[in-house]
Amino acid sequence: MPTYTAPVNDIQFVLHQVLGASEQDIPGYEELDAEFTAAVLEEAGKIASGVLAPLNLEGDSRGVRFENGVVRTPEGFREAFEQIKAGGWPALDCDPDYGGQGMPVLLGTAVGELFSGANQSFTMYQGLTHGAYSAIHAHGTDAQKAKWLPRMVSCEWTGTMNLTEPQSGTDLGLMRTRAVPQDDGTYRITGEKIFISAGDHDLAGNVVHLVLARISGAPEGIKGVSLFIVPKVLVNEDGSLGARNNVSVGKVEKKMGIHANATCVMNYDGAEGYLLGQEHKGMRAMFTMMNEARLGVAMQGLAQAEAACQNAADYARERLQGRAVTGAENPGGPADSIIVHPDVRRALMDQRSFIEGARAFLLWGASLIDRSRRCDDAAAEGLISLLIPVLKGFLTDKGFDATVAAQQIFGGHGYIEETGMSQFVRDARITQIYEGANGVQALDLVGRKLAAEGGKPIMAFFDLVKRFIAENEGDAVLREAFLEPLKAASKDLQAASMFFMENGAKNPNAALAGSYDFMHLFGHVCLGLMWARMAGASAAALASGTGDAAFHEAKLVTGRYYMARQLPATALHLARIRSGDAPVMALPADRF
Amino acid sequence: MPTYTAPVNDIQFVLHQVLGASEQDIPGYEELDAEFTAAVLEEAGKIASGVLAPLNLEGDSRGVRFENGVVRTPEGFREAFEQIKAGGWPALDCDPDYGGQGMPVLLGTAVGELFSGANQSFTMYQGLTHGAYSAIHAHGTDAQKAKWLPRMVSCEWTGTMNLTEPQSGTDLGLMRTRAVPQDDGTYRITGEKIFISAGDHDLAGNVVHLVLARISGAPEGIKGVSLFIVPKVLVNEDGSLGARNNVSVGKVEKKMGIHANATCVMNYDGAEGYLLGQEHKGMRAMFTMMNEARLGVAMQGLAQAEAACQNAADYARERLQGRAVTGAENPGGPADSIIVHPDVRRALMDQRSFIEGARAFLLWGASLIDRSRRCDDAAAEGLISLLIPVLKGFLTDKGFDATVAAQQIFGGHGYIEETGMSQFVRDARITQIYEGANGVQALDLVGRKLAAEGGKPIMAFFDLVKRFIAENEGDAVLREAFLEPLKAASKDLQAASMFFMENGAKNPNAALAGSYDFMHLFGHVCLGLMWARMAGASAAALASGTGDAAFHEAKLVTGRYYMARQLPATALHLARIRSGDAPVMALPADRF
Predict the structure, then answer these.
(1) Which helix (H) or strand (E) element contains residue A2?
(2) What is the pLDDT of residue A505?
(3) Residues paired with residue A276 on neighbouring β-strands, in sequence order
(4) d(CA A266, CA A247)
(5) Which residue of A has its CA nearest to B222?
(6) How far apart are alpha carbons B65 and B73 in whole angstroms?
(7) Residue B125 to residue B262: CA distance in whole angstroms
(8) Cα distance between residue A198 and residue A161, in whole Å
(9) What residue ranges in B165-309 does DSSP mark as E strands?
(10) DSSP secondary structure string, A212-259?
(11) In percent, how much of chain A has pLDDT > 70?
């Protein structure tokens, strides 16, 4: 069975030595000193390793059961959910006015990685609740907030997001679910929603569905869509649970992965619902939560990669097979451990160098969300809006690749379900798809974010890179191995942006044909920047003789690998982008 | 449910317009005129689409059952297997002396793609039998061949290959299974073998296991391994079935994919076995079949990609979502089909341009096997031995990627098992692992094949590329779009080979750290060469006004895509290779 160890040291390094969390002038960050975050992460790590990880493989093989209209989670999930609730974990980064602990998104994301890495299916029940919480918190009336939030913050009730319908996925304007206004101010919701994660289960007394629907007489398309609160069980004036609402599970999907999370077809049959936010402004309400939701998916991609890589590294150290080409390293044993083979190391370095860079990128992104919200900082908001599709698309694509590479290290054993390596691949796969498939992220990036505010955010990003390089040019450790490759990669990104600016206006296909490559090019530059920053922090620590020297040496070595072997991919992406739309669009549709 | 259409026109194009099969001076090829191969492929295509494909999804969801020591294949498999046998398909490329039809590997591979693309799990029962047939055919005594082959050629009995043990995978020298010689010349085989594909089932009256084992007193390591025939049921002198042998199934593995093929733990408990070939020369016997077996796995990788891509293209044409950025293309409908979006096309072009290039490479490889065998041509043998790890590693890696890309086009629907897109991914995944994991292929390529015969085969390959370029330099259609990129890519491959020659001898890790990148670099150059050849054939057809103009235009368009957007990857692989072993090997093993 696979194991999970919380990467506390790596997270602490990013929080404090790279991001300098407690020194940032963001309200609430002053509490985030190293001792405090270590205590939180250690505690969360114990639950992740000791409670959630042991349920992961079994949860996958059993899956959820749907019998007689009731959805049951796998054995052990209820008890574990009670433990999570008792520890107050779901409340960590929620509003204290509703029972939350008021911690920043930064800490919530760091803890989220541990839970998600240990058990993605399980953690989604809590994660979806947090998404629904955020929507009600941002758009609800005081009465709605008082009614729904406290019990969602505690996870006494869980939440869901209902967007997709069979004919309406990315294109939400095609939505058909109807909301009919009633005299008492409520609505009757009727329609079918699909792919509803955590749609029903036996972990909580109520499920608070947020449902996008069209009020009778609303404008056609996306501008006629409103958001509603539709509980599984109606709630009485006094807060007690009342009658069952007309909400039912039509089906629980059989999926490639996340078997222990119930992905439901939800049927609304004149269900009672309450308008959340303004009429016809449902999409705007969704958009305000999008950055955080997509950051959460990026986190999941990274988390599965970390979990898979840990097990691959353990296996590579333990599995005896063949001899090192440079001479036996375990001459007393029947063979050397396979970690002596350069190609096994290459695969592990691919994983590690991605994971550690990705974690820094993720947590930087979380801190930008905090800054944009807590400081009302428009520049931070612009920058994170630009980076979100990159975080979501790049971290989940490369996170998935890392799980595949980890599985590969097990050889045939990786293909057998009992080692758990297949589950990491299958669970990670969904992160590339949900919360906006990665092609849609690329479209959002190139079609919307790049030109936003006249290009201010992307210019701010380039400035940031330039400033870092200028400030560190004199550092011998950084210059050749980190700054030069970063400079080259950033130049490729600028050239690609320039190509879009020159060609995109007269021929939008020329930009969109390169959108996916641009997302990856951008992701590499971000990880290059993160590695340069981490290398700077580790070089400083080594120079001053503080901290664990071996830890910092390892950071420099891993960073050099990324810069030498991964970052050069930017040139390939640029070449593809510059080839334009002709090769992409030339084949007639019926010839595929 | 997914569908499958045999890509007969594409195969015919490669066989006749690219490879000029019937004009090649290889015994047996004179029969392969276009009319004959079309008839064979059409007939095989009907079985693939009409019989095998409809069993694929159901076979995946039911899987094999193992109850009371008996392995049962999914419903419909027995009837389909009878149809395959009745059609004589397993005999297609077997020796006429034993009931085969004597067709070349080329045709066997082309037909194999259709069956495998329609249903990989099912086709493996036949495929493993063919592998065992080949071993007995190459190394058996006349008596052994007469006894075992006719009923394996007909698939009345099926076969397996038993190599792996729990502690012995890639490193077969660690093998523990023992063979004790008996007075009557037979052996008693005792040991546990794992990951035995098609290890047991209800499709045939007998299963002929080929088992690697160590004869008592044999030398340690790989040089003490012998190969044995160990039937599930003993065969009497008169050919009738006798008593059950002491062979049993210990377990049927629960795997990520190929659920309908029984992957067994086989227990040999003093089972009666017959030495095949010479004592202690078991590995040599395995090696003679390796090229064909690995070509077969390359074929599987391509086949799953083709099947997945067909369904993705259909979905992209049918699924209505969003509008073309250049203006609605289906203004009467609720939305445009998603194939109008440049990034969807980009993903489909990635798949198609790989698949068509890969098919040409695969069939070229098959023709080299035929030439090496049927003409006893050492140069062809050297070249295919060099190319086999590239075929196996590159086609299965990129084939897997193609299935993932195809699944992605379905969005959330691709993650649901009922669309079948997940199965393509899960089934394709094994091709990267079995028959030598792809890292082992890369090691074989760089550590063994590259330097074989003093580098003669790799020089022959470069000559081949150079000659093609020189011969076609005057062709305006080819020059800029095909020959220039091919020249650049081939130069990268030469530079990488040079790097290994200069550094490999004094530091083998420097070569092996780049082995995986070299395999992919080589794969790209091969596909580049194939596309240049295909483009030449299509350009000629268009110039002469023969054939289907739209077909040939599509070939040129798809080829240009590959050259412009995929082939430039060679520069990235070269950069990685040149970074050497320092970044790969620097991290201490306990730091991963």
Answers:
(1) none
(2) 86
(3) A227
(4) 7
(5) A322
(6) 7
(7) 9
(8) 9
(9) 178-181, 187-197, 206-215, 226-231, 233-235, 241-244, 247-252, 263-276
(10) EEEETTPPSGGGG-EEEEEESEEE-TTS-EEEEPSEEEEEE--BSS-T
(11) 100
Tell me how close the Cα of B234 comes to any Cα of chain A, in angstroms: 30
B533: exposed, middle or buried (Cβ count in 10 Å: 0-12, 13-18, 19+): buried
Count each helix (H run) and each strand (E run) in chain A, helices first.
21, 11
For residue A191, the cross-strand partners are A268
- Neighbour tally for A547: CB within 10 Å: 16
Judged by CB atoms closer than 8 Å, whether chains meet at A425 and B429 is answered as yes
Render pLDDT for A422-478 as a digit per residue (tens, 0 to 9). Answer: 999 999 999 999 999 999 999 999 999 999 999 999 999 999 999 999 999 999 999
What are the per-10-residue average pLDDT scores of chain B (592 residues)? 97 98 97 98 98 98 95 98 98 98 98 98 98 97 98 98 96 96 98 98 98 96 96 96 98 98 98 98 88 96 98 98 95 97 98 98 98 97 98 98 98 98 98 98 96 96 98 94 98 97 91 97 98 98 95 98 98 97 95 92
Catalytic member of B113, B165, B272, B435: B435
The strand pairing partners of B67, in sequence order, are B70
pLDDT band at A285 (very low <50, low <70, confident <90, very high): confident
Give yes or no for a contact between A559 and A534, defined as CB atoms under 8 angstroms apart.
yes
Q: What are phi and psi of A320, to 5 degrees?
A: -100, 120
CA distances from B385 to B288, B330, B441 (A): 11, 51, 11
- Inter-residue contact B83 to B267 (CB < 8 Å): no
Nearest CA in chain A to B434: A412
Cβ–Cβ < 8 Å for A254, A280: no
**Distance, in angstroms, between B538 CA and closest chain A CA?**
15
CA B253 from chain centre, in angstroms, equals 22
- Residues of B whose CB is below 8 A from A567: none
Task: Match 């020796």 to its residue by tokens.
Answer: B95
- Residue among B346, B404, B513 whose CB faces A513 most closely: B346
Query: Are A363 and A571 contacting, i.e. CB atoms less than 8 angstroms apart?
Result: no
